[in-house]
């Protein structure tokens, strides 16, 4: 039986550098049995790098790792160098460590069941697909009772929210190796509020049974409500660590190094623009004679709400694909940046400038000097954490990659910006800055159509359309907007 006062894993003086960038600067970390450890910090603070080392994905430059308790392989608390060649993903799994990655690790060309089999080599022989299907569906049923996922669906055909659910369920599934620690890196970034709550209930159930979790999230209320202890990172080091009950949202933001701004929206008449003439854009998302048509005027911020997977993303994609028909120049900020956002072989600067390519041509050739100026301007404006925009885009943390997508859209000449739940994995400080940029650009006449799973973000919109089953079932002005009305419209049949 584990000693509940003895750490199951202890990291000491862990360092990691990527060229000239020092991602971790002598980090100490211990995790106790039966504990949910919240891990917070701005994009690029070192959170994901630290967890990648613990999960065996990356090798540290220096430091030590100790495992206590009873891993399946009998780690026995032996002290071993963190740079030891034998510490890898297999060793991490032997120690009972699982990880839900911010950038999902599922194979899109395989089914849900086949992806479950990848983690469990002991599922083999006759009817292995059937057993893998039972395993993953049982875990999905336990964590997300209304998931609506079939074991024989191709992962690439699933929405990003359902892919995230499969990744989470796979991490918690057990065949022949016990689970001692589950690392959750932005696990609710694509989930709506109800599904995210289901996951947090499961996390507490797992922790109360003696398991341990590390929860990385930029949703601070989620961390405060779910964690037992919170560790704050900044610039590759730990700057604070104490029980979650000793933090408030304000003190947590301050510990991260942010100025806690008033998030109330001032100085904008949210209803006036809706009354100004013919809509700039009008579309029936359902493609059928049902529901409500979506209208947008110049300078409006239009929100799309409702449970995840009910047609919001499809509507944005359809609008973008038909942009030439509407005669409107549009930019798209993807929430699924790996599939639909970044160009992984390009530099940071090239990923930013591609949205403005027409404005950077001189006599039919790309003006490299102007391209570099644009990229550097937006690196500074949106605080992308990199010393050089000529580095590859994958050298950035996930949140900083998302910043580059914002820079691409906002730095472009587009009249309309379509945003598909774009704040995935973005820290609170950057969110506040982007909200201000969006409001300023709307005041200058740009139109924003913004799908978000975060209720607080809907408060920045002039009006909000609520989706259910591919159709719009409610149109709420900002003055009418409440969480109760959004949830009611999401579930109840329209009269």
Shape: globular
Which structural class matches the secondary elements? alpha/beta
Cα-to-Cα separation, first versus last residue:
58 Å
Helix amount: 25-40%
Strand content: 15-25%
Helical region count?
A: 17
Descriptive overview:
- The protein has 495 residues and is α/β, with parallel strands linked by helices.
- 33% of the residues lie in helices and 21% in strands.
- The protein has 17 helices and 20 strands.
- It has helices at 47-54, 89-94, 112-118, 128-143, 160-172, 193-208, 220-226, 249-256, 312-321, 323-326, 337-340, 348-353, 368-381, 398-410, 428-443, 455-458, 483-491; strands at 9-18, 21-31, 36-40, 62-67, 79-81, 97-100, 181-185, 212-216, 229-234, 237-243, 281-283, 294-296, 301-305, 330-333, 361-362, 365-366, 416-420, 447-451, 463-468, 471-477.
- The strands form 5 sheets. It has a 6-stranded mixed sheet, with helices on both faces.
- A hairpin with a 2-residue loop joins β9 (229-234) and β10 (237-243).
- α3 (112-118) packs across α4 and α4 crosses α5 (160-172).
- The longest helix has 16 residues, at 128-143.
Secondary structure elements and their pairing?
Layout: E1 9-18, E2 21-31, E3 36-40, H1 47-54, E4 62-67, E5 79-81, H2 89-94, E6 97-100, H3 112-118, H4 128-143, H5 160-172, E7 181-185, H6 193-208, E8 212-216, H7 220-226, E9 229-234, E10 237-243, H8 249-256, E11 281-283, E12 294-296, E13 301-305, H9 312-321, H10 323-326, E14 330-333, H11 337-340, H12 348-353, E15 361-362, E16 365-366, H13 368-381, H14 398-410, E17 416-420, H15 428-443, E18 447-451, H16 455-458, E19 463-468, E20 471-477, H17 483-491
Helix pairs in contact: 3-4, 4-5
